[in-house]
Every structure is written in structure tokens, then in C-alpha cells.
Amino acid sequence: MRSVVFAYHDIGYVCLRELLDAGASVAAVITHDDDPGEAIWFRSVRQLAEAHGLPVFAPDTVNTSEWVARIAGWKPDFLFSFYFRKLLSNDILALPARGALNLHGSLLPKYRGRCPVNWVLIHDERETGVTLHYMVEKPDRGDIVAQRAVPITDADTALTLFHKLTEAAAALMRETYPLLCAGRAPRRPQDQTQASYFGGRKPEDGRIAWVQSARTIFNLVRAVTHPYPGAFTTWQGRRLYVWEAEPVAGTSGAPVGTVLSTTPALIVQTGAGSVHLRRLQLDGGSEMLGSDWARLYEIQEGAQFG
User: Domains in the chain, start-ordered, CATH in brackets?
Assistant: First the structure.
């Protein structure tokens, strides 16, 4: 079977690797050039493809008549999209003889759209997963071929959860690609009544609202901690990043954002409960323990975060 692969990021890397390990004939790989303004912590699809002697392209857009003609000339049986960041036109989706499929980082139909690994943590989900589905005009709505669930624990951050999803994606492709080739892969419509959709996230979305519960703030912090831009509050007009936090039982009745203690732990009142700020970084400074930061900046009980 001949495939054209659109791929990026770690999930793109492992899914392409699984296709190659299965002996797939990959006509070409289309990826993205790395953004110099983005932290590149994931493996390179381009390097993997080039190591296997595959043609690699990174056009600004593939939704042009020239690219449609080029892809058609490769006569693909399958088209695969693995964490490719741009939508493909209907003209491209119609090209493969046996279908165009996408690997999405949630258990569809829940968490369609962008940044599912971050959103499931923000919403305190206990399970997520990966879904291989056929692509249609609207994103993440096509028939499901296979899914693999992944549990979420309180110890998970976006990074650890992404690693779990990467392993699940590799296993799913390893199991499912032979079924697709044999024409025996299942196919079932999504239940549209169970669908949810979430958009992309910006660094500003990491701002902490102290009026929210301690659990909600904890979830935000772990959803956007390293290698993501981070949750933050303000201190004396400067942005203060919270890289690690945990909820603390009990309540004080103090106004939200009030520092309840600084030693042995930096504890702040929220809208429901309090939160231990374990690791902090003042904009332009070094990351450190919350209690060390409080001592360094002489933070007193009763101080107020912005």
C-alpha cells in the first residue's frame, strides 16, 4: 500500500516510524518547519524521513492546485495525518483510493479541536486517549477506526500525559495499519450528541484567577507547565510563573489571593480551599521552590497576589 504522510511533533514521529517498520510504501512526507519561537522538545519527523531516504516537503500550504496535482501523481492508497497542524482541503482528502485518516489526541467525539492534552487536564478528566478516524470536511468528525484509552492521574502534567498518548498512538498504529491494508479495519460513525470542541490556547490563557477553586488552579498549572508557556499571576507588576502547585485541604476565610503562610510552604487562599505554590519563577529570574522565593523577596503572611 502506498501512502502520503502529513506529520509533525512526537506523535507524528512515532506514527511514521510504525508505518515504516510495517513495511509501508511512503511516497512522501509533508511536515512543518520548526518555529524558532517555539520550544522544540519533540523528535523531528523530517530527520526520521530523511534517514529513510523519503522525500520531505514543508510548504506553507498544500491546499493549492499545484499540490493537489502533485499528491495525485503519487497515486496514494492512503493519506495519513499525524499531528499535522493545518487542515487539508476536500480536494486533497478525495485523492487516496482507500481513504484519508487522522490521528487525534483524544477519545473522540470528546475534545475535538486544538490542544486536547491541555484541555483534558484543565477540565479534570480522569481518562483520555487517541483516535484514528477518517477525515471529512469538518475537523475531527469522521468515522472512527480505532481508539486507545489512557488513564490520567494527579501526577500527570501535559508533558507526561503527552508521552502516554505518544506510546498509545504508536501501539494503535502498530495494531491498526495491517487491518487497514487487509480491508478489515472497523469503521463506526461518531455520536455527534457526545461531541465537544475546544480551540487553541494562547500564553495569556495561563493567567491564574484566584477566585477559582484550588483544584481548578492546580489543573491549570499542570496543564500548561513546562514545556508549555506556564500559568502565572502578578507580583508588584511583574509576571510570576507557577510551574508546580498542589491543592491544600481546609479554608481560612481570607480574601482570595492572600498569602496564608510562607514556611515551610508558600500557601495562598483561593475561591475554594488553598493551594501550595511549590515552584515559582519571577519574570526574568530563576525558577525556585516557592518557600525559597518567599524568603528571597521577603513575602509576608497577608500579602496579596494579583
Answer: 2-198 (3.40.50.170), 203-296 (3.10.25.10)
